[in-house]
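Weekly modeling sync, notes
Attendees: S.R. (lead), two postdocs, one rotation student

Agenda item 3: backlog of single-chain predictions. S.R. asked that every request posted to the team notebook include the full sequence so nobody has to chase files. The rotation student volunteered to paste the first one in as an example of the format we agreed on. Action items at the bottom.

Example entry:
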Amino acid sequence: MDLSASINRRIGRAMADYAMLADGDRVLVATSGGVDSLFTACLLAFWRKKAPIDYELINVHIDLGYKEGASDAVRRECNRLGLALRVEKSLFGPEALAAEGGKNVCFHCGRMRRNRLFSLARDLDCNKIAFGHHKDDLIETFFLNLLHSGNLSTMLPKQSLFSGRLHLIRPLAYLDKEEIIAAAKANDIRPVKDPCPHADDSRRATVRELIGEIGKLAPGSRRSIFAAMANPRLEYLL
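Predicted structure, as returned to the notebook:
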């Protein structure tokens, strides 16, 4: 895998800062087929070859049931990249569309998908789940929680669940989306189109546009927002 020195360094720093991997880990890699998840799967397989520790990887794709054959395209791409893939069929997409008369589709779908990943991690004896979330995702989540949930929080690069029996890790936490797209292209990683009908019509997509507009008005604001999430002045909050 061909990675620039800057990307390699920041991935390594994120892994070290949050002690993401350890000898003997069994890691379930959430592989949606998007560029972020495929890049993460390839990255962890690449690092496994050179790391001084040994860990196992199980790439899992949850077919949400939106489109017949969608998971076949993800499997073909993984096979082309030399990655084994386990596909779990579900009807989470249609079930989410039917819930609350079609309201909060992303919330319901996301919750069911996460719960299935947690149960699979338990059944497969995995102590970690790796996600392809990156710096932009963390910033967007911060704004989503600020605007819609009334709290100051975001996704963590490493998060402990179930009294420490399971950890969520995000090796791309220090990378921008644009960098991942460019690195994936350089390594001939070809993302599979998301079949979800709400992929471009969600609260997250709206927040992404808002952050883009803020960036136009205040160049460099993304960098400052990301730094601010690690630098709270609690004494100046209500």
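Discussion: group reviewed the output briefly. The first strand starts at residue 26 and ends at 30.
Action items: rotation student to repeat for the remaining queue; S.R. to check formatting next week.
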